[in-house]
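Bumping with the actual sequence this time:
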Amino acid sequence: MFKYPNGRAYEKKENERTWHTRASDTYGNRGMTLEADLNETNAYYLAQGIAVIHKKPTPVQIVRVDYPKRSAAVIKEAYFKQPSTTDYNGVYRGKYVDFEAKETRNRTSFPLQNFHEHQIEHMKQVLAHGAICFVILRFTTLDETYLFDAHHLLEYWERKQQGGRKSITKAEVERHGHLIPLGYHPRIDYIQIVDKLYF
């Protein structure tokens, strides 16, 4: 069981990433999660000398560990030390890059509840310093992945805060986002979109 710093237990939301492979998955997505695809892509970028982008580790405080055998340890209770910011950061062509990755099974919109207030605040701060900041959104049932600039995300977040829609429609994602074709190496070549948008 994981707990937040305030002691509240972590509960997995229905639309949060899942870590399983389904036998019915097509070759197109091969049952991989967005995170696995991005980690594979970033490893490719690093090996090819293209960019240095890493997943940020989530700081966890381990509280209770059981040792059923001398050679094995099982974590029974742990706490998130602090709220996380975004999933990935690094450097590309001399610029700081910071982005979040989210998935949804929804076909018609992307729920803004997938984002947390502290992540939005972090993105605002990153943008204020002139860095490259975006989100990578995946519609898992449609097998579509988009790069969506953080400026647009903040506009839709503000709309929600003012009592508007609590999601970004698929049409809005298509209008302001950039579809990233899935490949083999790299799996999600988001750098080609970054080149067009920011350089």
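The tokens above came from a reply further down the thread. The helical segments are 34-47, 117-128, 150-161, 170-176, 191-198.
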